[in-house]
Specification:
- The chain has 109 residues and is mostly beta strands.
- The chain is 6% helix and 39% strand.
- A six-stranded antiparallel beta sheet has the order 1-2-3-9-5-6, with no helix packed on it. The chain has a three-stranded antiparallel beta sheet with strand order 4-8-7.
- The radius of gyration is 16 Å and the shape is elongated.
- The two termini are 16 Å apart.
């Protein structure tokens, strides 16, 4: 397993190179790419009701969103992802987020 951290952008990308098989068998090497973005919301994010992720999730419905000062949010009820855009207009987070709040978004890439 290897971990790459990009401090200046607030992005942590974790790459899992696979698992070892039984009794020392080298096992498979199927990479799993996973990203964790920390986003500080701007006035523009609040006005547009969306934020840009560092990459487009391969399975948007498996995206995990936590408001750092709040609780975990539910995909499809509180937010959605389209391409690399995290959006909350007309959803549960609409009207509830504020400038300078921090979001943690986890997803497969």
């Amino acid at each position: 397993m290897s971990i790459v951290v990009y401090d200046n952008s607030g992005i942590t990308v974790i790459v899992d190179a696979g698992t070892q098989g039984p009794k020392g068998d080298p096992g498979t090497s199927t990479p799993i790419n996973y990203a964790v973005d920390y986003l500080n919301l701007t006035a523009l994010n609040i006005a547009e009701k969306k934020a840009t992720l560092s990459a487009a999730p391969t399975s948007p419905e498996k995206t995990i969103l936590d408001v750092i000062t709040g609780v975990a949010q539910k995909y499809g009820l509180d937010f959605i992802v389209s391409g690399n855009q995290l959006m909350w207009e007309f959803l549960g987070l609409d009207g509830k987020l504020a400038e300078n709040e921090q979001l943690r978004i986890e997803y497969f890439i």
